[in-house]
Amino acid sequence: MIARTPQEIRALFDRWRSHRGRTLVAIDHSNVRRWQDALGWEVSVTDLGHMASLFAGHASLRRFYCAADFGPDWRSMDLRDHSKELITAATASGFEAIAKRVKYIREPEGYAMKCDLDIEIVTDLFAMKDAYDRIVLFSGDGDFVPALAHLNQEYGKEIVVIGAAGRIGREIFDAHTSGVVSTIIYADDLKHQLDGWWS
Predict the structure, then answer these.
(1) CA separation (Å) from 135 to 37, 84, 110, 160?
(2) Contact 115/100 with Cβ under 8 angstroms?
(3) 190: confidence class by pLDDT, cuts 50, 70, 90
């Protein structure tokens, strides 16, 4: 189903509550950061922590994948303040934080920054497959679909995707139509229809 109303979303949370010990939440922070343009509001790490705790009971199953910025000097071991603050906020919000070093790519105008954690997320989903029955993926990236399809079809994992409207790949909707993704929840509805419900 594609959950839209507060009643539909509450019903899902009620149904899933008894399975919080067997649900893994994966936050693709680089993808979630880009939701702000579509949503018109910032998805804070604290809000993500509140939402994740509704799905998963154990911090080890609430996983926050983010960039670690050490600056353009590849030899630097000094994590920049904004990355320190992000990782600290994720840990304080009940997540297991998984950080990957940002790559700086030299371009004529300066540097371009790159940090994609798709491989780390997929690796963990397979490595931890015996620890969960349901995946709640905070990302609209359609590149995850082949891995999610394998986890669903070969291991019987239920797949739930949360993303901002207009930021969910066509592949996710196709996977929902085919039954690989059981549920899509729009982040817009979690904010505007359930704001304050978990506090």
Answers:
(1) 26, 27, 39, 6
(2) yes
(3) confident
Q: Which residue has the higher pLDDT, 73 or 39?
A: 73
Mean pLDDT of 92-96: 96
Q: Look at residue 198 and tell me whether its pLDDT is greater than 50.
A: no
Q: Report the run of H or E that residue 4 belongs to, with start and end.
A: none
Q: For the whole model, what pTM was predicted?
A: 0.90
3-state secondary structure of 158: strand
**Token pair for 140:** 């609209």
Residue 156 — left, alpha, or beta (φ > 0 → left; ψ -120 to 50 → alpha)? left
- Select 2-192's CATH number: 3.40.50.1010, 3.40.50.1820, 3.60.20.30, 3.40.50.720: 3.40.50.1010
pLDDT attached to residue 85: 97
Q: CB of 53 within 8 A of CB of 94?
A: yes
C-alpha torsion sign, points 20, 137, 182, 125: negative
CB 132 within 8 A of CB 98: no
Q: Three-class SS string for 78-139?
A: CCCHHHHHHHHHHHHCCCEEEEEECEEEEECCEEEEECCCHHHHHHHHHHCHHHCCEEEEEC
